[in-house]
Amino acid sequence: MLPLVLDLAGRKVVIFGGGPVGARKAAFFQGEARVVVASRSFGKELRGMDVERVKLDIGAAPEGEIAGLLDGAFLAVAALGDPALNTRVLSLCRDRGILCNSASGDPGDVIIPSVWKGRSHAVAVTTFGRSPAMARYIREKMALDAGGIDLMIDLQARAREALKDTEPDQEKRSATLWAILHDGAAWEAVSRGEAAAWEYIRGRYLHG
């Protein structure tokens, strides 16, 4: 499997299952895609979410009705409590060339990672389904160690633009930016705020 970052704006994501698992998947996609949740009942976890709800008993519904719900879908999530029903959804998706994540049974084509987002960056972690708890643990540990990353991203972008005016050699520009990231004093300056960090970086690395 290959990790990717996808723009799902305007894309349809169908989630089968209105329980806690389906709600977590809906929360992951809401605001990034058009989310449709299909289930015979909807748990309290879905309250307040900006998703479309479709009442449907997946176990009793004919294939045509489920297929109609999948029309125009970019991705589906089978988050039902019965692995056999998840496998049924997955099979219908594969017949139609629709990517599918399955919470149980056949794992499907897509793994939904554990994600932590900052203002200017995102980190996604997966154990390829072997230990979701470990993926969450790694994400939380990385978040604790992530102080100053967003500000350093801003400073890197600022330094990159400044170097274009003073250093014609792209490899030398890259080496300078890499050196800033490995400079403990630069990170210490970041902890004191943008002005202090920029003053240090400009004086230490941006000559001319």
Give an account of the 3D structure.
The structure is a single chain. This protein has 208 residues and is an alpha/beta fold. The chain has three domains: 12-112, NAD(P)-binding Rossmann-like Domain (Rossmann fold); 114-146; 149-205. 45% of the residues lie in helices and 16% in strands. The protein is built from eight helices and seven strands. The chain has helices at residues 20-29, 63-70, 83-95, 132-144, 149-166, 170-181, 184-190, 194-205, and strands at 12-16, 34-39, 52-55, 73-78, 99-102, 114-117, 122-125. The protein has a five-stranded parallel beta sheet, with helices on both faces. The chain has a two-stranded antiparallel sheet with strand order 6-7. Strand 6 (114-117) and strand 7 form a beta hairpin. Helix 7 runs antiparallel to helix 8 (194-205).
